[in-house]
Amino acid sequence: MMCRRIFDRALMLRNDHNEWPDRMLRPNSQYLTGSTVGLVSASQVGRKVIELLRPFDTTVLVFDPYLTEQEAKNLRVKKVTLMDIFSQSDIVSVHAPLLPNTKSMINRTHFTVLKEGAVFINTSRGGVLDEQALISELETGRISAALDVSIEEPLPKDSLLLSLKNVVVTPHLAGSGFYGYAKIGESAVRALEDFFAGKPVDGAVDFEKYEIIA
Predict the structure, then answer these.
(1) Which CATH architecture has domain 6-169?
(2) 44: how many CB neighbours lie within 10 A of its CB?
(3) Which of 74, 44, 46 lies closest to 62, judged by CA?
(4) pTM for the structure as a whole
(5) Please, what's the b/e burial string for 107-121 (b: 16 or more CB within 10 A of its CB; e: otherwise)?
């Protein structure tokens, strides 16, 4: 949606039907198909995104200090540094949990190396990045962003994120929907049934990794 500026173009046609896409900024750009997508964290959600990207002929880069080279090979992704994610990707999508060592880990040095026309997506937690640094880069108009989360929720009415035209903000609803809610209920019931039956519980917390999971 962000690569194709669907939100902007739909509003453009609604507000002025005489206007046409070839008169918009960047009518052509690198869309999802054939792009390089950088994922911050190979979390459960991150790994699902990797699966969803496969039909689009993308090159997937992943930053995750806990991802082994063998796991990266199995996932058919390339493990790189956080700076590589931002300097090499057409689209950057964040799926990291908010932990003491991930707070504000994405900062100005990362945003300034994004390609012209790059898309930044955050559906994890607002606190994993320096929000003001993102705003400063968005003000240049070089990049665009889709944000489902922010440091302060709801956003203050005077937040620049709500007025910049190259930003789409949604109210923390990425996990919403009847299907998702049903799956949460099913997994909870199944976990209880397996636990009391003495069976392994799918998705059980590994307490050895408790400090690094959401």
Answers:
(1) 3-Layer(aba) Sandwich (3.40)
(2) 12
(3) 46
(4) 0.89
(5) eeebbeebbeebbbb
The residue ranking higher by pLDDT, 214 or 150, is 150
Q: What is the pLDDT of residue 25?
A: 52
Catalytic residues: 125, 153, 172
Side-chain-side CA neighbours of residue 26 (13 Å): 17
Please give the helix or strand (H or E) that residue 186 lies within, else none. Answer: helix 178-196
pLDDT at residue 24 above 60?
A: no
Q: State the Cα–Cα distance between residues 211 and 101, nearest whole angstrom.
A: 10
The string of DSSP letters for 51-82 reads HHHGGGT-EEEEE-TT--HHHHHHHT-EE--H
- Map out the domains of the chain as residue ranges: 6-169, 178-212
Q: Strands 36-40 and 91-94: what pairing? A: parallel
* Interatomic CA distance for residues 185 and 174, integer angstroms: 17
